[in-house]
Amino acid sequence: MAGLYLHIPFCSQRCSYCDFYFVTTAMSQDRFLKALVHEIQHYGREYGHREPLETIYFGGGTPSLLPTGSVNMLMDTISEAFDTSSVEETTFELNPENGTPAYLDGLRAAGITRLSIGIQSFFGPDLEKMNRVHSSQEARSVLRAVKDASFDSYSMDLIFGLPEQPGEYWAANLEIATSFDVPHISTYSLTLEEGTPLWKQVQRGQVQPQDDAAHADAFAFTMDYLTSRGYEHYEISSFARPGHRSRHNHRYWDHTNYIGCGPSAHSFWWSGLPASRWSNVRNLKRYEALLSQHVPPLGDREHLNLDALADEYVLLRLRTDDGLDLDELERRYGVDLLTEKLSVIAELEQSGLIHPVRNQTVRLTNRGKTLCDSITSRLLPD
Ligand code: SF4
Predict the structure, then answer these.
(1) Which end of the chain has fewer CB within 10 Å, C or N?
(2) Does the predicted model carry a pTM greater than 0.70?
(3) Average pLDDT for residues 20-46, to the nearest whole number?
(4) Which domain holds residue 150?
């Protein structure tokens, strides 16, 4: 079964750390929605009969800048273009300033079952540094409103490792999140992406970035704090109460198929070799112009052979708590990693960075998770 991702590229203002594709001008939503409908219909014709949808995800950008009537219209379009009878989860990214009770009711009525809320921090100085629109007050009030709105599940994002962020802010962010009993929490270590306003401030020496050791300490604290409060740490950045894992995100780590619509959206489809990954143009005007001529708005396309897929599988699975299944790696990708990397695996076990291999599965320990990238590069197939 497949997933569908819709990228809604509008934002009220630019967050200082963000390098997603978005526009902040009040460009016409109508033109974009018309193009998006064309694209959904195009993929429905091309892929809709191949696999039913299992998950739908509205991301961005800021999907919550769409009126609920538009969300409703998009949901109808999806149902007409694809087989949605098996959809188990429909997630919608919500910014706190948009989460009024009336808006949440509208989303429920449109068929949204899960929210992902971009809180990032409950502290004013953090939010100002990030140039977020919402206030610390709104960060709390949206959680109260969402709790009352009875979605099947919801998640919130938090960012740690901000320049000059006091350590006590991070601990308090986790404490506040758990005091609301949020069922799913995604925690992201700040990455300074080149060209973003925050990156420029660091280059000019206006703010001091935190070093790697501080990031690792904050991450280790996060793992201890959330798992001791009943959260399952099921992927490097993702913590969930039992039964509240993100189904949509799972497909990114499992190599299952998904279609992305909207400017900059990515797609992946593997039904025979080579598999295909492609992305849309990162330009709203170009995106609309191509679709108005019934041309798919393709940016890049790459074909992935089995070697490339095996590398990705190792990289993605090591991020998960289910771990890297060596039998699956051999059966599906033709790589016998246990033989190939026997000495590396033994060394990683001895250093306490991976658990002893059981049931043919390699899983990182908590210490290993703080070094995930370097361990992954040592385990990539030759
Ligand atoms: S709201 Fe999200 S997509 Fe928009 S600028 Fe901020 S982080 Fe980026």
Answers:
(1) C
(2) yes
(3) 92
(4) 2-251
